[in-house]
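The protein record reproduced below.
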Amino acid sequence: MTDAPMMPLAQMADAVLRCGDGREKTALSRKLAAQWQAARAAGQTPEVGTASPPMQPARPARPELLAPRDVPHRKPGSPEGRIALLHAVAHIELNAVDLHWDIIARFSHVPMPMGFFDDWVKAADEESKHFNLMADCLEELGSHYGALPAHAGMWRAAEDTADDLMGRLAVVPMVLEARGLDVTPNMIRIFKQAKADSAVAALETIYAEEVAHVAYGSKWFHFLCGRENADPKEVFHSLVQKYFHGALKPPFNEEKRAEAGIPPDFYWPLAVST
């Protein structure tokens, strides 16, 4: 008996996007990523294919999604505040799972090297692991993902850049995920002070692995600029001003941003000029 042929990658991505429950979505994500990675490790060039992904991914009934201004703010010094912080990170990670599969499903028609798809499969797999780490931490503290309201605006960048691969790379990994590099060290300090060892370990894993996700964005953004003989810094500034709503907020983690291939002259002008 032979194994059924592996479905094309874009259809794998579409299947994850259409799965609503967080634990089920991330389990499917990790299973399909493992299939792709095993085929690639065996020297195969699996079919990428095409898909017609939904404009918005399937979501669980909870959490309730609110406008950013309506999400309650809790001080992180309290146990309730720390739960709220972990819940916010879990929500970000679940959105990141969908964002990384969406870039595959939505832009599979763009001629790109196989390494482009390998990178985003790996990123989606790691974001799936990150969501589960955060969900485990919430459950350890007597809560769960969906217990609190969450930010409804997380998917806006995907909708705004649904027809613009360079715009997607500029805004999602190089702005939104780079912001994670800026804020995660302080979150780790908060949980260290609270002696919340599981949360510290989980956040340290996330922090270590997110650098590569930002780097994938920078790498393929520069690749596309080179293909079009365009100046990466000028194109980045123009796309961020077009698609990102608001200024970039210092302080910036310049060391980790540099490690991810984003120099200061990419982001500082956008922080001071808007």
